[in-house]
Amino acid sequence: MSRRPWFEALRLVLLGLAAAAFLLPLLWMLSFSIKPADEIFTGRLDLLPSSLEGLANYARAMELRPLDRYLLNGVIVCGAILVFQILFAAPCAYALAKLRFPGRSLAFGLVLFALLVPIQVTAIPIFLMASGAGLLDSYTALVAPFTASAFAVFLFRQFYRTIPDDLIHAARVDGCSELSIVWRIIVPLTLPAATAFAIFSVVAHWNDLFWPLIVIRSAEMNTPPLGVMAFRSGEAGDRYGELMAGSVIITAPLVLAFLFAQRKFIEGISLGAVKG
Amino acid sequence: MTLGIDGIAKSFGATPVLHDVTLQLGDGEFLAVVGPSGCGKSTLLRIVAGLEPADRGTVRIDGVPVDHLPPKARDVAMVFQSYALYPHMSVAQNIALPLAMRDLGRVQRLPGWSWISPRTRARRHAIVGQVREAAAMLELEPLLDRRPGQLSGGQRQRVALARALVRRPRLFLLDEPLSNLDAALRAQTRNEIALLQRRLGVTTVYVTHDQVEAMTMASRIAVMFAGRVEQVGTPADIYERPASVAVAEFIGTPRINLLTARVEGDRLFVAGRPRPIAAAGIAAADLLLGVRPEALLLADPADTRALPARVSHVEYLGSEGLVHLHTDAAPAGAVARVEAARAAVLRPDQAIGLHFAPTGMHLFGAGGRRIAARFPATGDGVLAAVS
After folding, report:
1. Which CATH number fits the domain A58-271, given the four candidates 3.10.180.10, 1.10.3720.10, 1.10.101.10, 3.30.9.10?
2. Are B102 and A175 an interchain contact pair (Cβ–Cβ within 8 Å)?
3. pTM score > 0.90 for this model?
4. How many CB atoms are located within 10 Å of the residue A43 CB?
5. pLDDT in tens, A200-225
6. Which residue in B has a C-alpha nearest to residue A169's C-alpha?
7. pLDDT per position as a tens digit, A154-181
8. At what angle do helices A191-207 and A67-98 cross, to 10 degrees?
């Protein structure tokens, strides 16, 4: 590794450019959200508005749409999806990683196969099933199709395989049932895996537009992205200031949650599992 | 509590690991199962614990077959070679887990339940008391809040012991618990475990590849080779009457000396030199005479009845000396254990004679099995000093 100052500088510049490429749209969104409508279409590239009256965008955005309701929907849906995903995936991954039973390889093969199937393929059948069961336009319709995650099973299984068998044997001798082993030993030990998965899952489902668009009819069931989309509807006109303010409001919880989880994620569990 | 292991057989795929293993343990007995790596002793322990199903045979605890029972229903405790402590729990939580699983119901184990239920609170309280008691027994009190990752090897080992004995199991299973410790700590812990076992009176199966551990700790030893129990007996039985060459070689350090020998009538010939033997009607050429190092006696090289040998190397150990010897009768070389003063004056390449003390001699026939024989004393004097 070179310690020359110009190399360090070059590295910083490259990293800075990459970061800027990702952050600029966000920054633009922030900037628009605090500008009054007449400053948005000036053709000049000012990041900061000339006055603070643009902040009213936030108030108007909240007024126009029940954004708090959409945020709550987002929290409920993402939370429920995550809880059920871990609830189902952890025992399943444990069985695939540590238990010996006939058909285990086949079962794991099916999990891998399921990884390859995108939601667009199964969307129509699931929609028809939900429709037939009268579940459309409900939290169940938003949550249920995602409760079984092949990705979670796969990710957890890979982590669980690294746990020494002795630990599981010890737990069995100590009187744990297989499910207690999962919840008392395995999941706490692989918290970094669960955290990493939680980030993926929450980001994906918080931002998901496709599925809610299909199953949601009524406005009060809107998830955050659906709610923001409503700002662009004909009835409201193209109100970019409010749209951007709304976008900031629905993005903020995700960014905050991510920053928090990231710290946890890096802390990890740096303890020797067995002997050191 | 008694343990009966009856005709246990086990294969992994096409590889047989255990053949018809049968062992009996009386109440409070300490049995060491000793054998080289891969002889199936750990698998046997796992079968007794219920972690591995046997292909055939029966495990009985107090006379009752337990083959169909999962580990937790067998009321056994196990200490693993890797200690297998739960890394995300404190020492106290590690020790408390078996008690919590046994004494608390599914609902009672939920976090915060003891705030609601006074009964759960009382049980949790009792568990804390028992954990403290076990920790005190193993001098772990100052470490109760630490994580396993913050402990030394010896401390982890004691936590594993505490976790095993805290619920006073019917059966105590130890799988090479000392092999990750350094030599000094191993000797100390060896004594501690033996004392603890006697104090608690728990029937114990101790698996090890270290014959010294087996000899020093156990009341009885089972020697295993290639999935079979070769011999079961007290340490003295095994040392003084090994059932086969393999057992004789495995037990005892330095290793027993093996000399080629033949028997004609009432005489045993080693390298053409006869000595009297009383053995029932054997006349065979391919025999092995095992002589313990302490039974190999140095003699004057001019003594024609002594076995001629040459000193190859002398190890002076302070309290004693080990003399490594070349002799035609022992292709692998021989070792004699002698007084330190005697060893100090020996030089490499020095010629020397060898006599055998009758108490340390064992005759093995075809297939390495022991042949019952007596070796009358020859009256050969042991050399007082070697010039």
Report:
1. 1.10.3720.10
2. yes
3. no
4. 4
5. 899 899 999 899 999 988 888 888 88
6. B51
7. 999 999 999 999 999 999 999 999 999 9
8. 140
